[in-house]
Amino acid sequence: MSLLVRPEPFSTEFNRLFNSLWESSAGSQRWVPEMDLVESDDHYLLKADLPGMKQEDVSIEFNDGTLTISGERKAEYERKDKGFFRLERSFGRFSRSLTLPEGVDPDKIAAAFHDGVLDVRIPKPEQRKPRRIEVAWRGNDDSKPATIDGTSTGAEATSTES
Q1: Distance (Å, rounded) from C-alpha 12 to C-alpha 20?
Q2: CATH class of the domain comprising 26-77+87-123
Q3: In a 10 Å sphere around its CB, with 0-12 CB exposed, 13-18 middle and 19+ buried, how is residue 92 labelled?
Q4: Could you state, in order of their start, the residue ranges of all structural domains in the chain?
Q5: What is the DSSP string of 100-159?
Q6: pLDDT tens digit string along 20-71?
């Protein structure tokens, strides 16, 4: 038999008020900007929401296949000793890293900053093309060598003999 208990009507608000007395200051909260990564046919597009920031507040680095976007959004207000005020927006340093596929050319990565949104265009690496390998065939007849066509895309490999 299960017992269902209705919460008290004010318990949520009371807990929120009580916890707010013991929370750390708003300045020490960690800010993590929201990002989207979208794939198209020939590139990836990374969009990061960075409201209130300027282009010079953001840094983009590429190192060992990892793209890192970092920066700092500074608080606009100073702490006052008297009076009450409420700050819900987060401030502080942030850093987000993204591992890119092998073969991405870092010289072709382009970034633009407009209206508080950072767009980073990352071209996809060129696909490896299959190559033909001539195989010398040693059989009883002296016919032409066999040619094997195939691709090496993952665990499955396909081949045809001619």
Answers
A1: 12
A2: mainly beta
A3: middle
A4: 26-77+87-123
A5: PPTT--GGG-EEEEETTEEEEEEEPPPPPPP--EEE---SSS--PPEEEEEE--SS--EE
A6: 565 554 444 578 899 999 998 889 999 999 998 988 899 999 999 999 999 9
